[in-house]
Write a structure and sequence with these properties.
Elements: H1 2-13, H2 32-65
Length: 66
C-alpha cells in the first residue's frame, strides 16, 4: 500500500520535477461511523472465534466421553 501511494505521488508530481523518496503519514482523521463499523466488525470476529472455540471444545468433550 505504501509503495502504491509513493508511485501515485511520483506519477502526479513527476511533471513538476518532484520525486518522492519517502513519505510519512503523521495524522489520519477517520469518520466516526467508520470507526464504529470497524469496531463492531472486530467485536463480531472475536465473538465468532470464541464461539467456534467453544463448539470445538464441546465436540472434543463429547468425543472423549464416548
Amino acid at each position: 500500500m505504501a509503495n502504491d501511494m509513493m508511485q501515485q505521488l511520483n506519477m502526479k508530481f513527476n511533471k513538476y520535477g518532484i520525486t518522492f523518496e519517502q513519505c510519512n503519514v503523521t495524522n489520519v482523521i477517520v469518520n466516526p461511523q467508520l470507526i464504529g463499523a470497524l469496531t463492531e466488525k472486530t467485536r463480531l470476529k472475536i465473538e465468532l472465534r470464541n464461539h467456534q472455540k467453544e463448539q470445538e471444545n464441546k465436540k472434543l468433550s463429547l468425543e472423549n466421553d464416548e
